[in-house]
Write a structure and sequence with these properties.
Helix 3 links the parallel strand 8 and strand 9. The chain has 216 residues and is α/β, with parallel strands linked by helices. Strands 1-3-2-8-9-10-11 form a 7-stranded mixed sheet, sandwiched between helices. Helix 2 packs across helix 3. The chain has 6 helices and 11 strands.
């Protein structure tokens, strides 16, 4: 197997071929081990890949794109870096399909925070590459998604979206715009809030696990 474009770790499926694929994308300042802690609790038939973001941070951790702070603009994201990561993920999906015994028609992305924002962006930019999205504590950043109102492109997609109602990092009001955006595109989705901050509550994990198990 050739080297893939992004560093990652895997949990093989109990299936020898055409396994449903789940790719995980961590949040800002974390790494591939973070969400991988979920792997042992998820359906055994899933082939799970957890990916490390491409931009190393100091003294440790990684990011999908820079988040900057200044007096003039306050907190702002580097959307060009985000687009670079979006396209890298799209390439990585193709590489994973070519190199692992997985089913190209059953690709799920699971992202937290920055990883969630990028999962939305990949699905809405390259809908032909994915099927299901689990978007935890993120939002749709329209600046990194090309305009496409052709709902036919999205009719196969299915989203599980969740957010903490007291999230201190990404305001819940940003996440609450998501259902309307997905409805306009004719995309199947569910949206849940949990009484937590910027994290994944046990009930949140249980709910997306149940949702996912029905699809794979």
């Amino acid at each position: 197997m050739k080297d893939l474009s992004l560093y990652h770790i895997t949990r093989p499926s109990t299936l020898k071929e055409k396994a449903p694929l789940l790719i995980m994308f961590h949040g800002y300042g974390s790494d591939e081990n973070d969400l991988f802690s979920f792997a042992s609790e998820l359906p055994e038939e899933l082939f799970i890949i957890s990916v490390r973001a491409p931009f190393a941070m100091q003294p440790y951790g990684n990011a999908w794109y820079a988040i900057n702070f200044d007096e003039e603009n306050g907190k702002w994201s580097d959307d060009e870096q985000a687009k670079t990561s979006r396209d890298l993920i799209a390439t990585f999906i193709d590489e994973a399909l070519a190199n692992y015994p997985v089913n190209k028609d059953s690709v799920t992305l699971l992202g937290f925070s920055q990883g969630s924002i990028l999962s939305y962006a990949v699905a809405l930019t390259y809908p032909e590459k994915v099927n299901n999205i689990i978007a935890l504590s993120g939002y749709v950043n329209s600046e990194i998604i090309p305009v496409n109102s052709n709902t036919e492109d999205y009719k196969h997609l299915n989203f599980f979206c969740s957010h903490g109602s007291v999230d201190q990092v990404i305001p819940v009001d940003w996440a609450r715009k998501t259902p309307e955006i997905l409805e306009k595109l004719g995309i199947k989705h569910v949206y849940h809030e949990y009484p937590v901050g910027h994290g994944v509550a046990p009930q949140n994990f249980h709910d997306f696990k149940t949702w996912l198990a029905k699809l794979v």
